[in-house]
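User: Here's a structure from my thesis project, written as structure tokens. My advisor, Dr. K., wants to see whether a designed sequence matches the one we expressed. Can you design one independently, without my sequence as a hint?
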């Protein structure tokens, strides 16, 4: 299902791009009508999902069943839709119908039932689009693969579209969107599971959505246990945020305002959680207007001759701190310059650290954001941190922890996020959560190895089909014989792990060590399978075997890919467990060079109160990567080179066009 949804996402994005190509919209204008259609489609998906359950429980009187009403759907995190607002009605409109008018009527019907969305949903924008283009997009957005999809598929698609628009710098430089893995790291660290959650620079509302997901994982209803407060300066982005919340079945109190000068919710000292990704390094804030702001408990940072705050970073940092209740936690993104800034900013930082409420710092490498490549840091405050940590700050340097998504963009894999989160668990004395995570990965490593056993016969059958089509040479015959023997040995070892795994630290080390040979066998079998495929393909080609659809090498390639990917999973999850156990062998927090260190205030004072993790954790020793994938690296280089060539060609065309425009 994962790969199917990824394919659907790309199809939907291609369809959405037709709107821009067939309209007068600039790149920063067409995303709202697109997101409006995604909103309607998701609302209809949720409507259909809960409708049967609602209808089954409707009361009847005198043989008449009570009609459906709005409250039936609200209690189930869905939106009630009038017939004219249901997406299948829009998708099935006849060719001559005015689709823009129909979409506008659908939006108005939703707003009539949900006043909080009045003026939020796009309407007039659709009048600028060609009727046929709208018809094509509606049909594609009604993709059959989505009609039976389970879970928060459209919530995911909504995030995918936000990502794509950010990647295009489609709206205000992409500042409205914080990458999900960054938000998830903040959520995992501060665990916003109740009360008031404030984002004073809320953009498209991603912090709220991820907080809600966290609460749902705790088996609670976010609409009942948390209230989301947001402030955002851009009116269009506020609409985007409210749609984002609605598409996830949430509501929030999002108000307009420039946070430097207004405090829309008046939550100083009241917020249970504060989360944000504010603009970095702003230098145009009027110092006179904010000099007496109660949200600046440590005073103003530096002010220049023009009476402007030299850098707004510490304004935001002070705001976030001031909003917290006596037990509140905060997590936010900040420019990496801020943690070691000098001058008046250093004085503010010292006062902040001396409160004892700076909890943790996480350094993130560059290229995590879609529109800026600079590194950043995540700051964590905790006004109720454990007494033994009152004079300490957890320094976590995660710059070497990343996954390459594209040539330009990195993120954290789910397992990397879990590992970084596990360090916070150890810091907070929650060793049982650390051990449970390691246990789950060791169990999954064994399960993936067991699952691979069914793929060996498939691979051998595909090899047999190739052999039957040609006369195999000695190298291929010998390789097959060796593989069969090694595969049988692997199967014997894998079957010894069918039982339950212990969860205490001694048992975890024993399971880890016992699985090590299996992980190494997986690595060796992957190499053998790849070599077998190359030998078989060459032998088949040299012997003039069958071509086209009858070519048995195609089936062999599929069998090879399936077996290799499954074996990689067995080794992958063992390596995840190894990463944690090798660094924290006793399930206790210890200093790990290049990764983490608990730093006390004495050491911070000796380093100018710097909060830059890399200054304290040192350098990690080099590790040999036994799984280095030369062919994979070459493929990445090829992709990167192709991308650079495309950019160079596009730039050359622009230069040529400028020359022609100048008559040269």
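Assistant: Designed independently from the structure alone:
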């Amino acid at each position: 299902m994962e790969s199917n949804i990824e394919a659907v996402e790309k199809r939907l994005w291609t369809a959405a791009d037709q709107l821009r190509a067939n309209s007068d919209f600039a790149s920063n204008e067409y995303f709202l009508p697109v997101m409006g259609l995604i909103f309607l489609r998701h609302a209809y998906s949720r409507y259909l999902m809960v409708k049967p359950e609602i209808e089954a429980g409707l009361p009847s009187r005198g043989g008449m069943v009570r009609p459906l009403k709005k409250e039936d759907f609200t209690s189930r995190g869905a939106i009630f839709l009038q017939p004219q607002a249901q997406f299948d009605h829009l998708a099935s409109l006849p060719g001559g119908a005015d689709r823009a008018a129909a979409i506008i009527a659908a939006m108005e019907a939703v707003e009539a039932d949900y006043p909080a969305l009045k003026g939020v949903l796009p309407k007039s924008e659709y009048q600028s689009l060609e009727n046929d283009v709208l018809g094509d997009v509606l049909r594609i957005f009604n993709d059959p693969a989505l009609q039976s999809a389970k879970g928060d598929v459209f919530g995911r698609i909504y995030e995918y579209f936000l990502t794509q628009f950010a990647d295009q710098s489609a709206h205000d430089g992409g500042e409205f969107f914080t990458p999900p893995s960054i938000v998830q790291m903040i959520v995992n660290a501060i665990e916003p599971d109740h009360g008031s959650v404030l984002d004073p620079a809320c953009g498209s509302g991603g912090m709220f959505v991820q907080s809600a997901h966290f609460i749902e994982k705790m088996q609670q209803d976010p609409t009942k246990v948390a209230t989301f407060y947001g402030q955002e300066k851009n009116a269009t982005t506020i609409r985007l945020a409210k749609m984002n919340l609605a598409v996830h079945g949430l509501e929030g109190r999002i108000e307009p305002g420039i946070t430097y000068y207004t405090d829309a919710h008046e939550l100083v000292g009241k917020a249970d959680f504060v989360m944000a990704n504010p603009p970095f390094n702003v230098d145009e804030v009027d110092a006179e207007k904010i000099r007496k702001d109660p949200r600046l408990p440590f005073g103003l940072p530096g002010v220049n001759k023009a009476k402007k705050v030299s850098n707004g970073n510490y304004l935001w940092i002070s705001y976030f701190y001031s909003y917290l209740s006596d037990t509140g936690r905060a997590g936010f993104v900040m420019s990496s310059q801020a943690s070691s800034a000098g001058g008046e900013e250093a004085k503010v930082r010292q006062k902040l650290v001396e409160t004892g409420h700076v909890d943790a710092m996480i350094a993130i490498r560059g290229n995590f954001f879609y529109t800026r490549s600079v590194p950043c840091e995540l700051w964590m405050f905790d006004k109720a941190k454990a007494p033994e940590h009152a004079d300490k700050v957890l320094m976590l340097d995660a710059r070497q922890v990343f996954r390459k998504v594209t040539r330009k963009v990195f993120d954290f894999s789910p397992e990397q996020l879990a590992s970084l989160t596990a360090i916070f668990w150890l810091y907070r004395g929650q060793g049982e959560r650390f051990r449970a995570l390691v246990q789950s990965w060791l169990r999954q490593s064994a399960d993936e190895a067991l699952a691979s056993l069914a793929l060996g016969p498939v691979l051998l059958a595909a090899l047999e089909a190739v052999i039957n089509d040609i006369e195999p040479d000695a190298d291929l015959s010998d390789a097959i014989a060796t593989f069969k023997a090694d595969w049988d040995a692997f199967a014997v070892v894998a079957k010894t792990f069918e039982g339950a795994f212990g969860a205490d630290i001694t048992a975890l080390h024993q399971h880890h060590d016992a699985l090590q040979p299996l992980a190494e066998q997986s690595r060796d079998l992957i190499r053998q399978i790849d070599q077998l495929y190359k030998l078989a393909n060459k032998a088949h080609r040299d012997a003039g075997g069958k071509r086209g659809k009858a070519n048995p090498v195609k089936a062999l390639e599929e069998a090879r890919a399936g077996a290799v990917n499954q074996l990689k999973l067995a080794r992958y999850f063992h390596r995840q467990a190894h990463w944690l156990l090798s660094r924290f062998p006793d399930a206790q927090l210890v200093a790990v060079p290049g990764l983490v260190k608990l730093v006390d205030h004495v050491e911070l004072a000796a380093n100018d109160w710097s909060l830059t993790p890399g200054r304290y954790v040192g350098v990690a020793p080099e590790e040999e990567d036994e799984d280095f994938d030369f062919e994979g690296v070459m493929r990445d280089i090829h992709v990167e080179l192709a991308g650079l060539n495309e950019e160079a060609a596009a730039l050359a065309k622009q230069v040529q066009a400028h020359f022609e425009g100048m008559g040269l």
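When you compare it with your expressed construct, this may help: The two ends are 55 Å apart (CA to CA).
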